[in-house]
């Protein structure tokens, strides 16, 4: 068990809201648990650690995060096993990625003890919010933003780190329809596409809205230069099965998020002796694969969505239909297996789960 010795000034709510939620109706990110963790960065160090009741915070309208977008976040989950044990899924991977985002956005690193102790002590306090019902989990949203009161375009000297948690059911309950985006771009070489910077999500809203007006759930991003190569899907990484090979765009450029669910699925595919290719994936290859029947699966993978089956891919005004009904498909088997690891029903051979 990870040591949780950080001194956190804790104020416990007198009115838990746990009875206000219905485990059968938990849209993603709509409800928040009773408490939040807050830490402040001032004079070159993290300090003022507190857990307090979730609620509004006073804030100056001049903080630089509001003007220049110096904000990064993470997404992770706590699960309750069938035996009632609460566990986090690969939390140190989120910390690693958060600190990579922080470096690119000129923000301070979060030390491991601040990240882990803050989350662990808070999830322990709010542990009844980790619902055991099938498909439910506690989504954990750590985020950091610049708090200097200044309108000059320069990096802030003060920052706030907050962790919120939100009980949630499945992000997508049905297979999704994705449009291959050929006009707008999310990321470009040298930019911040590999980070979880808030702006990456802000720029996605307008193209997503246009795609939704055409009947799609989200877009599949392509490279900013020629729109010939697949990058990621909406707010998920994207994977395909062609023959017996799992194919996914490589994250070796800096335009694609290094997904923890993506990495977990690649590891499991290799455990199961499946061939895995991380490489450039052209739109042409995907469309040809669907047309020839060689492409048998397409799906998005991410913390919020876990595994989201793709039933149709729209490209240049035409829909290409992808099979989603095979109960033996890799995507269905791996989604079930990951869930089994989280629920304590399958052996956690890679040591991914961290007990709360
Ligand atoms: C996650 O899967 O945690 C994400 O970051 C997606 C989120 C923007 C809903």
Instruction: Please state the structural category.
Output: alpha+beta
Q: What would you call the shape?
A: globular
> Quick check: average pLDDT?
96
Rg on CA atoms, Å: 21 Å
CATH homologous superfamily designation of the largest domain:
D-amino Acid Aminotransferase, subunit A, domain 2
Please give the alpha-carbon distance between the first and last residues: 8 Å
Number of domains: 2
Low-confidence runs = none
The largest sheet, given as strand count, sense and whether it forms a barrel, is: 9 strands, mixed
Oligomeric state of shown chains: single chain
Helix-strand topology string: EEEHEEEHHEEEHHEEEEHEHEEEHE
CATH class of the largest domain: Alpha Beta
Task: Could you tell me the CATH topology label of the largest domain.
Answer: D-amino Acid Aminotransferase, Chain A, domain 2
Percent range of helical residues: 10-25%
Estimate the strand proportion: 25-35%
Q: Give the number of helices.
A: 8
Q: Could you characterize what this model shows?
A:
It is a single chain. The protein is α+β, with helices and mostly antiparallel strands and 356 residues long. The protein has two domains: 9-170, Aminotransferase class 4, branched-chain amino acid transferase, N-terminal domain (D-amino Acid Aminotransferase, Chain A, domain 1); 176-342, Alpha-Beta Barrel (D-amino Acid Aminotransferase, Chain A, domain 2), CATH 3.20.10. It is 23% helix and 30% strand. It contains eight helices and 18 strands. It has helices spanning 64-68, 91-104, 112-125, 198-202, 205-213, 260-271, 283-292, 330-342; strands at residues 9-10, 35-42, 45-53, 71-73, 76-80, 86-89, 137-146, 159-168, 176-180, 218-222, 230-233, 237-242, 245-249, 275-279, 295-302, 306-315, 318-321, 353-355. Strands 1, 2, 3, 4, 5, 6, 7, 8 and 18 form a nine-stranded mixed β-sheet that branches. Strands 9, 10, 11, 12, 13, 14, 15, 16 and 17 form a nine-stranded mixed β-sheet that branches. A hairpin with a 5-residue loop joins strand 5 (76-80) and strand 6 (86-89). The chain is globular, with a radius of gyration of 21 Å. The model has no long low-confidence stretch (mean pLDDT 96). 2-OXO-4-methylpentanoic acid is lined by residues 75, 201, 235, 302-304.
């Amino acid at each position: 068990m990870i040591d949780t010795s950080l001194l956190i000034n804790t104020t416990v709510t007198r009115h838990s809201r746990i009875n206000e939620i219905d485990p059968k109706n938990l849209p993603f990110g709509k409800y928040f648990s009773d408490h939040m963790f807050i830490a402040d960065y001032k004079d070159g160090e993290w300090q003022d650690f507190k857990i307090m009741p979730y609620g509004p915070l006073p804030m100056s309208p001049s903080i630089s995060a509001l003007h220049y977008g110096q904000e990064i976040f993470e997404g992770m989950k706590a699960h309750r096993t069938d035996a009632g044990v609460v566990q986090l899924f690969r939390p140190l991977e989120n910390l690693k990625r958060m600190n990579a985002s922080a470096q690119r956005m000129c923000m301070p690193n979060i030390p491991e003890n601040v990240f882990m102790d803050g989350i662990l002590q808070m999830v322990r306090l709010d542990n009844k919010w980790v619902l055991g019902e099938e498909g439910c989990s506690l989504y954990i949203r750590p985020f950091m933003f610049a708090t200097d009161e200044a309108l000059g375009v320069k990096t802030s000297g003060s920052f706030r780190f907050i962790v919120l948690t939100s009980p949630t059911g499945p992000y997508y309950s049905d297979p999704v329809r994705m449009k291959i985006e050929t006009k707008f771009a999310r990321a470009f070489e040298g930019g911040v596409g590999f980070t979880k910077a808030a702006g990456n999500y802000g720029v996605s809203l307008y193209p997503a809205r246009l795609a939704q007006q055409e009947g799609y759930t989200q877009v599949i991003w392509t490279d900013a230069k020629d729109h010939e190569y697949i990058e990621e899907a909406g707010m998920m990484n994207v994977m395909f099965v062609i023959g017996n090979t799992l194919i996914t765009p490589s994250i070796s450029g800096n335009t694609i998020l290094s997904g923890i669910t993506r990495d977990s699925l690649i590891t499991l595919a290799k455990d199961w002796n499946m061939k895995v290719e991380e490489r450039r994936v052209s739109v042409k290859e995907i469309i040809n694969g669907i047309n020839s029947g060689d492409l048998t699966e397409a799906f998005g993978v991410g913390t919020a969505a876990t595994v989201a089956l793709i039933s149709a891919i729209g490209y240049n005004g035409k829909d290409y239909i992808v099979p989603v009904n095979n109960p033996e498909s890799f995507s269905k088997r791996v989604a079930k297996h990951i869930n089994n690891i989280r629920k304590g029903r399958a052996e956690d051979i890679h040591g991914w789960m961290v007990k709360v």
